[in-house]
Design brief:
292 residues; alpha/beta; 2 domains; eight-stranded mixed β-sheet; elongated
């Protein structure tokens, strides 16, 4: 339990999800404010309601493109003296926090490292997840309490490193989906029905994720690079020549995997040298531009 009283500014999926999870964790949510009012969901709209002034913490959950405007609105709104202002952007260091700080409001980041796509399941989604936090000391302390209330862990974002922090989040959350789309496309192009290809690939994807629970880097990796199988790599590269973007992705990811396999020392270096040579070649389809 915590004595923090939270007003959530932004009633999209993230805002509604955090409202539900915080309430389930025993936090008093004094209001949920968005562009369209909904009495059924307790969402206000228009001018800031009186419940804003009762909050000890204002959590801004709008999209990044709307963040500066939302903070400008809050700078002239009737916020309680000394109330903490948190925002849920993992990539932005908004300039709009400066006027709020000058007005005596500690500010910081509260960025859930999970996809909050379903408010109904948000309490379960956030349980055991991680929250990226930064900012003023008092803001960090509030973030720590709110994270504890939803049974999440905190990850401290070093000053000046939000861009790389958020890029890491994109690699982990967005790019696996992109890779699955590429894999499904390749199966479609060899004549496998889309629904069959999808069903066939998803257990493979799930097993790769499960491997990560038991290790990291090369210890969780399977496939031709960790085996030093240069012949298979060569066949892949030839098969992908007609797909320049997919070939670029294959080469870039294979080079990264090669680096970790080298560092692990588990595979013959000579075979890895041959794979590296193949990955460095620039033989693409005649109609596609040559890249280094």
């Amino acid at each position: 339990m915590t004595d923090d009283r939270v007003f959530i500014f932004g009633a999209g999926r993230a805002g509604r999800s955090l409202a539900r999870a915080l309430r389930a964790g025993g936090v008093q949510v004094t209001g949920l404010h968005g562009r369209q009012a909904s009495s059924a969901e307790g969402i206000s709209a228009g001018a800031a309601p009186k419940s804003l002034g009762a909050a000890t913490c204002v959590l801004v959950t709008v999209r990044d493109a709307q963040l500066e405007g939302a903070l400008a609105t809050l700078a002239t709104a009737p916020i309680a003296p000394g109330a903490v202002v948190l925002h849920a952007s993992g990539s932005a260091d908004p300039e709009g926090l400066a006027p709020l700080r000058r007005a005596g409001h500690p500010c910081g980041t509260f960025h859930p490292l999970v996809a909050l796509s379903d408010p109904e399941n948000a309490p379960q989604t956030l349980r055991g997840a991680w929250i990226g936090i930064d900012g003023d000391q008092q803001a960090r302390q509030v973030s720590e309490r709110l994270a504890a209330a939803v049974a999440a862990h905190v990850l401290y974002i070093p000053p000046g490193e939000k861009a790389r922090y958020h890029a890491a989040a994109v690699f982990a959350s967005n790019f696996p989906t992109v890779l699955m789309c590429l894999a499904e496309q390749l199966l479609r192009e060899v004549g496998i029905a889309p629904d069959v290809g999808r069903r066939a690939l998803h257990p493979l994807f799930a097993s790769a994720v499960e491997n990560l629970r038991g290790g990291a880097g090369a210890t969780a990796l399977t496939g031709p690079i960790v085996r030093g199988d240069a012949d298979t790599i060569a066949r892949h590269l030839r098969a992908l020549r007609a797909h320049p973007d997919t070939l670029d992705a294959y080469r870039a990811l294979s080079r990264a995997a090669l680096r970790w396999v080298r560092e692990s020392g588990t595979t013959d270096g000579g075979r890895l040298d041959e794979i590296e040579r193949q990955l460095g070649a620039t033989d693409r389809s005649p109609s596609s531009p040559t890249v280094a």
